[in-house]
Amino acid sequence: MKDEKKFRKAQFSFIFCSMIVYAFFYLTRKNLSMAMPGMLEEKVISTYAVGTMLSLHGILYGLSRFVNGFWADRLNGRIFMTVGLALSALMNFCFGCTSVSLLFAIFWILNGWTQGMGFPPCAKMLTHWIHPKELATKMSIWNTSHSFGAVMALGLCSLLLGLGFGWRWCFYVPAALALAVAVFCFFKVKDSPTEAGVEELEIEGKEVKREMKSGVTTKDRMRLVFTNKVIWMVAIANFFVYIIRFGFLDWGPTFLKQFKNIPVSKGGLMIIAFELAAVIGTIFAGWATDRWFRGRGVRTCVFCMLFAALFAFGFWFLPQGAPIWQATALLMGAGFCIYGPQALIGIIVANQATNEAAAMANGFAGIMGYLSTLVSGIGIAFMKETFGWGAALFAIAAMALVGMVIMLFAWNARANGYKNA
Fold first, then answer.
1. N or C terminus of the chain: which is more exposed, having fewer CB within 10 Å?
2. Is 413 within the bounds of a domain?
3. pLDDT digit string (tens) for 124-150?
């Protein structure tokens, strides 16, 4: 590369700006978990209705990521993200304005679709900006935007509720902020090095890549994704990764209040600690993948999920009345471990599918992951109402072990699929 310094500067700008934008996708998605206790207390919605809404939101989000993965590989990622975030802001504002269960469901399910317009273009753009040899480390850093967005949602909503604004403001304020960031996205995020005025990356197997570029079709992309056994195994394991992740993130403040008698304000802080530990865990997982496993992210995922299960079971075994710091430490351990696989799965499938089909591959892994909301949404609501929170938490922890076993089937996978493209 002729001007590496100029490229690195543009690369840093892209990673930083796209992280900011994607964090605000999370702000307009994870604000619901803080509003839920207030909504349930006011009886504007029931536990089953919330669980059903979470499940349908997740399924449509996963479907959106899958469908938009097809489009994101073809269209400008900057514009795609801008439109998605602006529409999500609109859905949040509408959600805060209603008091009817059916409308709650409609607006939140539609928000699931608009949220699915965020990650697929990012997956495509990241593979154009970052070399496969650096992708695990740098994309893991990028993936901390998930946690920063969730921390922002939990912190902002905790502040608003603490000041007495009521649960509706958990949607109004994020909507206004997200709309402003959508404008920022349009002007600051660059779809590719070419759009930023710098040279494209040179990747091993470039002669193959050039041939594909000249006439790559949707059929070619589908072959790269759906004939790859590693992508299938990782996508199925993603189903179980998301159960434990969303089990804690979506229901955290609620079960801490109802099961551990911890006030929503303190419960929100504990989930913030969970997310902050996830930031460190995500970066560590990416570094460990490149440093110890030479880009083979599947192997990192196996160890992460094993320890995530151990921490989750530890939280389940924790007796009533145990000090809050012990519960917080176990939650942080689970967060540190489970977010590594969450980040690495996107990297694994992107590398396996190459940058020609990275968005489609992530869309496929995404729909498998978000089908998990059938369990983490209505499934947990059913378990809680029928057997209590203890049974629900045990089921969440057990899912991590199942996912680990599935990952073991892809243990010998190569770091990327460029040579087979």
1. N
2. yes
3. 888 788 877 777 778 778 878 887 888
Tokens representing residue 323 in the block: 């000090």
For residue range 270-290, what is the model confidence (pLDDT) as tens digits?
A: 878 888 888 888 888 888 888
Give residue 267's domain range.
11-187+218-420
- What CATH number has the domain bearing residue 256? 1.20.1250.20
Would you list the DSSP string of 7-48? HHHHHHHHHHHHHHHHHHHHHTTTTHHHHHHHHHHHTSS-HH
* Total domains, the chain: 1
**Does residue 5 sit within a domain?**
no
Taking residue 202's Cβ as centre, other Cβ atoms within 10 Å add up to: 9
CA distance 123 to 83: 17
Closest CA to 171 of 264, 97, 275, 251: 97
pTM of the model: 0.71
Q: Kindly write down the DSSP assignment for every residue of 355-400, as one continuous string.
A: TTSHHHHHHHHHHHHHTTHIIIIIIHHHHHHHH-HHHHHHHHHHHH
Q: Is residue 195 part of a domain?
A: no
Half-sphere exposure of 131 (CA within 13 A, CB side): 14
Asked, for residue 144, whether it belongs to a domain, the answer is yes
DSSP string, 127-190: HHHS-HHHHHHHHHHHHHHHHHHHHHHHHHHHHHHHTT--TTHHHHHHHHHHHHHHHHHHHH--
DSSP class per residue in 172-226: HHHHHHHHHHHHHHHHH--SSHHHHTSPPPP-TTHHHHHHHHHH--HHHHHHHHH
Element (H, E) at 408: helix 389-408
Q: How far apart are CA 170 and CA 27, in angstroms?
A: 10
180 pLDDT more than 90: yes
Structure tokens at 273: 């600690």
Q: How many residues does the chain have?
A: 421
